[in-house]
Structure formats: structure tokens, C-alpha cells
Write a structure and sequence with these properties.
Helix content is 25%, strand content 27%. By secondary structure, it is of the alpha/beta class. Strands 1, 2, 5, 6, 15, 16, 17 and 18 form an eight-stranded mixed β-sheet that branches. A six-stranded mixed β-sheet has the order 8-9-11-12-14-13, covered by helices on one side. Strands 3-4 form a two-stranded parallel sheet. It is globular.
């Protein structure tokens, strides 16, 4: 086990549509995000797009796609893991899905939440941070066309979907038995709401019981509250991140990077303790930090927010409806 603190940073939804597509003209199109993401030991974002230039659009109001170079652009931004368990990963049908899986195979960073089978889709990205293994699992609980038409199965390609939590909880228990730190990156909740819905509450509680250390996600296009639930840290909504702004709503442009700190010594102490005695142990997540940002209407890039102290206070206040604690 390593000593000191392990930092894990999270950003919300990313796509490269319309004017945002210009960021892909250069591999370093998002390099200015390096100070926000690259300084963390692990950085995770939600890549909300099919990775393809082919295929037929699914019958949806919005369909997103990007070429494989998007993964290189994310890597240059400091992203270590791209989650694709979301409602846009299969926007261009079976052909787009096949291309996405090929891009995943060739990706410079791990891509999670999509696979040729459920076992692959629910498999974690595992990163070694100074001797501590960090497993990151992705899944979507959004019951849209993607999760209902393209859920990964025993012999079926698609996204990791937890409309029923059975597979997700099994994946978390398996990771808990094998790795030091378990992170669950979710697509969940109700769009444009600012408080968790009942399914989020139930899923967060079940994941904490199954052994998840960090449970973070999005889908709302809004920033929701975060804090501690038992021995887990939960962030209910990350908001947009690299995104077009097709409305003038300030809440659509409000975003940030959520970073949690893991105490590696506490992780080592837990590993030396029999599982039946874990109930008396504190959370290994010992601190959180939120850096408020505002997405530019010009190019879709999040940058330092004006009135950052007020935005930070808003983020703290959002915890009120989450049933979470502000300290471990």
C-alpha cells in the first residue's frame, strides 16, 4: 500500500457536437484542462457520445457522435478513465456500437461501461496509485432507449445498465473482494432536477452496503449535492462539463471538478481488518474539494467561474436535500 492521500477527480458530461467539435482539430484541444484533471491521481469523465463516424441515428431527439480522436483529446486533457455507460453511447445503432468497441480497444485511456458482453461492460478500469489499486465501474440507470434496447447481456454488446441493480451490485462486490478502493461512476437521476430522486437514494444505499467507497455520477445537466453516506462518499450530480450550450440557462453552464481524497493509510488498515469488523471503521474518503467552473458558450470548454465563492456556497447548500453528511 502507498502512503499519503490519493486524489480522484470527476468531471461531468462530455461531447463534441456542433461548435464543440472544433476542439478535436488538434490532439491537445482540451489541454487547458490539465491543471484541473491531470494533477489528480485518477480523473474520470462521462463521454456522452457514440465513438463513430458511421451508422444510422437512433430515433431520439438528440444523437451524439465523435471520431476516435476524441479519446486522444481526453487523454491530453488529463483524463485517465472515460465512462460510457450513458444514454448516448449507442446513438448510431449497431454499426456505431461496433465502431465504439473498436475505438475502446485502441483507446489511449480505459473506457468503461460499454462492452461486447455484460461482463466486459461492467468490468472496472483498475489503476495502481503508488501501490493502491483503484477500481472504477460505470453503469447507467437511465431507462431510455439506450438502456432498454442496448443493454449488455451475457452474449450481447451494449452498455452496462442497472435498471435492476443485480449486475451492478455483483460487480461492486467482486471488485470489493479484489481491489483496495472501489469507485462507481453512474448515469442516473432525473434531467434538470436539483435533488436526487428515490431510485438514486435506494441505489446509493445499496452500493454503500455492497462496499463501494465512492459513488459519483450525473445525467441531470445540473450540479447536485455531495457528501458522506455511511462509509461511502456520494456525489449525486456533476452537471455538464465539455458541452454545447443550446439554451441561455445559467444552470446549464454551471459545472465544476469534484475531487475526493482517499487516505491510503486507512485503506491499508482496512485491508488488514476482517471484513466482518469493517462496520466499526471510518470512511477511507477523508476530504472533498469542489472547483466551480462555467462552460463557455463559444467553445464548450469549462473555465474558472466568476464569483467562485458564491458558486462554492451554492454547491455546499445543494447537500440539504441529499440526506448526506458534510464530513466523514
Amino acid at each position: 500500500m502507498g502512503n499519503g492521500r490519493i486524489t480522484i477527480a470527476f468531471g461531468g458530461d462530455v461531447h463534441f457536437e456542433r461548435h464543440v467539435k472544433a476542439l478535436l482539430d488538434r490532439p491537445d484541444g482540451l489541454a487547458e484542462l490539465q491543471p484541473l484533471l491531470g494533477t489528480a491521481d485518477v480523473a474520470v469523465v462521462n463521454l456522452e457520445t457514440a465513438i463513430t463516424t458511421r451508422g444510422t441515428p437512433e430515433p431520439k431527439s438528440f444523437t451524439f457522435r465523435a471520431p476516435p480522436s476524441a479519446l486522444t483529446t481526453l487523454a491530453a486533457a488529463g483524463v485517465d478513465v472515460a465512462g460510457m455507460a450513458n444514454n448516448h453511447a449507442v446513438d448510431f445503432g449497431p454499426q456505431g456500437l461496433a465502431d465504439t468497441l473498436a475505438a475502446k480497444d485502441a483507446s489511449p485511456i480505459p473506457v468503461i461501461g460499454v462492452g461486447r458482453t455484460a461482463a466486459e461492460a461492467f468490468a472496472p478500469a483498475v489503476l495502481n496509485v503508488r501501490g493502491t489499486s483503484v477500481a472504477v465501474i460505470a453503469s447507467t440507470q437511465v431507462g431510455d432507449l439506450t438502456a432498454t434496447k442496448f443493454p449488455a447481456g451475457d452474449a450481447k454488446a451494449g452498455v452496462a445498465a442497472n435498471l435492476d441493480n443485480t449486475r451492478l451490485l455483483a460487480a461492486v462486490r467482486a471488485a470489493r473482494a479484489k481491489y483496495d478502493v472501489v469507485v462507481v461512476f453512474l448515469h442516473w437521476g432525473t434531467e434538470r432536477t436539483t435533488c436526487p430522486d428515490p431510485r438514486q437514494f435506494a441505489t446509493a444505499a445499496a452500493l454503500e452496503k455492497a462496499g463501494a467507497d465512492v459513488i459519483v455520477g450525473g445525467h441531470h445537466h445540473r450540479v447536485l449535492g455531495a457528501g458522506w453516506l455511511g462509509r461511502a462518499y456520494v456525489g449525486y450530480g456533476l452537471g455538464n462539463f465539455v458541452w454545447w450550450l443550446n439554451t441561455n440557462t445559467p444552470a446549464d453552464a454551471a459545472t465544476g471538478v469534484l475531487t475526493v481524497e482517499i487516505d491510503a493509510a486507512a485503506v491499508a488498515a482496512r485491508a488488514a481488518t476482517p471484513r466482518e469488523q469493517w462496520a466499526g471503521l471510518p470512511s477511507v474518503v477523508v476530504a472533498d474539494h469542489y472547483a466551480p467552473l462555467t462552460i463557455s458558450a463559444k467553445d464548450g470548454v469549462p473555465r474558472a467561474a466568476a464569483k467562485a465563492s458564491a458558486r462554492l456556497a451554492e454547491w455546499e447548500a445543494a447537500r440539504a436535500c441529499t440526506k448526506l453528511k458534510g464530513t466523514p
